[in-house]
Specification:
The protein is α/β, with parallel strands linked by helices. It has one domain: Alpha/Beta hydrolase fold, catalytic domain (Rossmann fold, 3-Layer(aba) Sandwich), CATH 3.40.50. It is built from nine helices and eight strands. The chain has helices at 43-48, 73-86, 99-110, 132-140, 145-149, 153-161, 168-178, 208-217, 252-262; strands at 4-11, 14-21, 26-30, 52-56, 92-97, 115-121, 196-203, 236-244. An eight-stranded mixed beta sheet has the order 1-2-4-3-5-6-7-8, sandwiched between helices. Helix 3 links the parallel strand 5 (92-97) and strand 6 (115-121). The longest helix is centred in the N-terminal third of the chain and has 14 residues, at 73-86. The protein is globular and about 60 Å long. The two termini are 25 Å apart. The model has no long low-confidence stretch (mean pLDDT 96).
Length: 265
Amino acid sequence: MARETSGVARVNGVELGYRIAGEGKPLILLHGGFGSVEMFGPNVELLAAGRRVVGVDLQSHGRSPAVERPMRFETMADDIAALIDSLGFERAAIMGFSLGGGVALRTGIQHPDVVDRLVLVSTPFKRKGWYPEMTAGMDAMGPEAADFLMQSPMYQAYQQIAPRVDDWPVLVRQVAEVIKIDYDWSGEIPGLSMPVMLVIGDADGLPPSHAVEFFELLGGGRRDAGWDRSGMTRHRLAILPGVTHYDINMVPALSAAVIPFLDGS
């Protein structure tokens, strides 16, 4: 098992809790909404077998004390860039899932100088990329969902690690707000300067066609690579079979798919 340490980084007026496992090149791991690094299950240890994994709990999530600051992808991306600097890394790979994927993508757009590689798991480049039933669920969520969600495994995990468990309603309110914000970052995708890997499940919360459109914006999927692979871009697309939005973060197939990309293949 990879050796683990933990800490808290103070950046941009907020505190971000994190766990570090493994040794080698750094990989910043960003969880989905209402989660923490534990949301990645066995993938943390699998990824840490070959690199230093820094599992960060985003604003008001997990080990990070809740703050009364509007939750936005852009400001959380600034937090991650500042965290990379505070940990003494010149550059780091970033891998984000769902909400964390949006933060990872914005970090790559806003702070390309600190991002070595980008892995975006179940991450649309625009809000309308989600299936309509997903956006309907986001639109319906409000602060009152805090009580209902206290019956969920996400709250049980939060209870174990949150500095102030009574801040759960703050987290729910902030997430419910950020997931309603409309966005379309398609104009910024072609300008990404680092290699990008997109990963979704074939039964995810966004259709495979959206991931293909995303891949094409990066310059991928436009021609045959040729026998010598000369037509291949540095970007990658993986669609995992039999995987949903609710288990892609946990299945070992996720780390198996991304490790070769993180290793430079």
